[in-house]
Design a protein that fits this description.
Lambda_DNA-bd_dom_sf, 21 helices, mainly alpha, single chain, Helix-turn-helix transcriptional regulator, 0% strand, elongated, 3 domains, 434 Repressor (Amino-terminal Domain)
Length: 453
């Protein structure tokens, strides 16, 4: 017996399988199974559509989610769907009002009305009409709750493995898709596209880190389409920046620069602009364009003096922000690729200090781990093998779920640097356990250094 057997029974009584109910609500059938098993609760934006599908009110849905049976009126659900029963109700109404087809001298016999069944049928017609209004004329409060859910997920994504969040991200993104297909007022349609597109950005990050680059590119393409539909500069620039980030780690990193066009400060918030310029600096350094990399670093330093101002994407917080710790992380990685040990070490130290001082939910363990690798590289550039090994030591104590997928590629460059400095045997002794660390999905912004040297 499942924890919510009454919810399962109600779903069957309404003629739904888990698959068809999931299709009705635009959620995965596994989500429906998790509701019935008591593993998860429906998101706020799914409760009203679920109640409508089950032909009950929100209070009764609350009873089902608590594992309780419905009140008596709903026990006659099958009668409420019976056309013969409904015809009888119409006959009862005609008898009560005297509205009959022909006069007769026979006395009118008034039969008792099945009140529970009549009320249930009337309630279903009210729900049906409410759906018509939702499609045509009213604002949809579900959209506000989707925005809240997306902001929560963006914040959790910074410090939680993507695999743990993937079902919820899909659920929120698909709910936004469903609202767009169903229809909302024009003044809400733009917000729906913005939430759908930002959800696609989260899924693009998860897909890339789970090794499915085809899925990641599909998500990024749809995110940019949503940006065009919403006419949102911030979403457009975030989508193209994320595409550049994905391409930076591909076999054609130079293609990333095609997606990093100059951005106006009037078009986006300062954090989005800093992210774009930081990406340009690191991509340029990666492909050997030192002039453009240094120019981007100078512009990034200028942007540090501007006050923070959010746009409609960075306002979601979490992954979609670019705090000082992340800026220092990018600067350290860029100087490392440029071969500037002193600057790389300074910025790596700044990044680690900023992360240590940040609240726990802002501490991206992926960025912290890779910053330690950059710090080790800065010491190797100065031929200081012992200090480099000390910088890497905390990585050996990371729990398996925090050994991100980008860590082994980053360590492979460390291996090559140690091999040239000392020997391949020495590199293998120092790094063997880190090279074979089990991967875990993380944000693309926590990408490791995959440059050969």
């Amino acid at each position: 017996m499942t924890k919510r057997e009454t919810l399962q029974l109600r779903r069957r009584a309404c003629g739904f399988t888990q698959e068809t109910l999931g299709e009705r609500l635009s959620v995965d059938p596994r989500t429906v199974r998790s509701w019935e098993a008591g593993e998860n609760d429906p998101l706020p934006e799914h409760r009203r559509p679920l109640a409508e599908a089950l032909e009950i009110g929100l209070n009764d849905l609350g009873r089902l989610l608590a594992g309780l049976p419905l009140q008596e009126p709903h026990a006659a659900h099958s009668a409420g769907n019976n056309p013969e029963a409904l015809s009888q109700h119409e006959s009862d109404r005609a008898s009560l009002t005297g509205d009959v087809g022909e006069s007769t001298d026979q006395p009118v016999i008034i039969e008792p009305v099945d009140v529970p069944t009549l009320l249930a049928a009337a309630a279903r017609r009210a729900v049906d009409f409410g759906s018509v209004l939702a499609n045509a004329t009213t604002d949809d409060p579900d959209l506000d709750w989707l925005g809240v859910s997306l902001a929560e997920l963006a914040t959790e994504y910074v410090h939680t493995p993507a695999t743990d969040l993937l079902p919820r991200i899909v659920e929120v993104r698909d709910a936004a898709f469903a609202l767009i297909r169903r229809g909302v007022r024009p003044r809400q349609l733009r917000d729906a596209y913005l939430i759908a597109g930002t959800g696609c950005l989260l899924l693009a990050s998860a897909s890339q880190n789970l090794g499915d680059t085809v899925a990641a590119r599909a998500q990024l393409h749809t995110a940019e389409r949503c940006a065009e539909a919403a006419d949102s500069d911030a979403l457009r620039i975030w989508a193209r920046g994320s595409a550049a980030l994905a391409l930076e780690w591909s076999s054609t990193p130079a293609a990333a620069l095609r997606f990093l066009h100059p951005v106006s400060l009037e078009a986006v918030g300062t954090q989005t602009l800093r992210r774009t310029v930081a990406l340009e600096a690191r991509v340029s350094a990666r492909i050997g364009n030192t002039v453009r990399a240094h120019d981007a670093l100078r512009r990034l330093q200028t942007l540090e003096t501007l006050p923070d101002r959010h746009d409609e994407v960075s306002a979601f917080g979490g992954l979609f922000t670019f705090p000082d710790s992340k800026r220092a992380y990018y600067q350290a990685g860029t100087h490392d690729l440029l071969g500037d040990a002193t600057a790389a070490r300074r910025h790596a130290d700044d990044a680690l200090t900023a992360y240590a001082a940040a609240p726990e939910h802002e501490q991206s363990y992926g960025d912290i781990a890779l910053t330690r690798v950059t710090l080790a590289h800065s010491h190797l550039l100065d031929r200081d093998l012992d200090t480099a090994a000390a910088a890497l030591e905390p990585l050996r104590h990371l729990p398996p779920e925090q050994r991100i997928a980008q860590l082994p590629p980053a360590i492979r460059r460390t291996h090559r640097m140690i091999a040239r400095l000392d020997s391949t045997r020495r590199a293998r002794e120092l790094l063997a356990d880190l090279l074979h660390a089990p991967p875990a999905a993380r944000s693309l912004d926590s990408s490791g250094d995959r440059t050969t040297s």
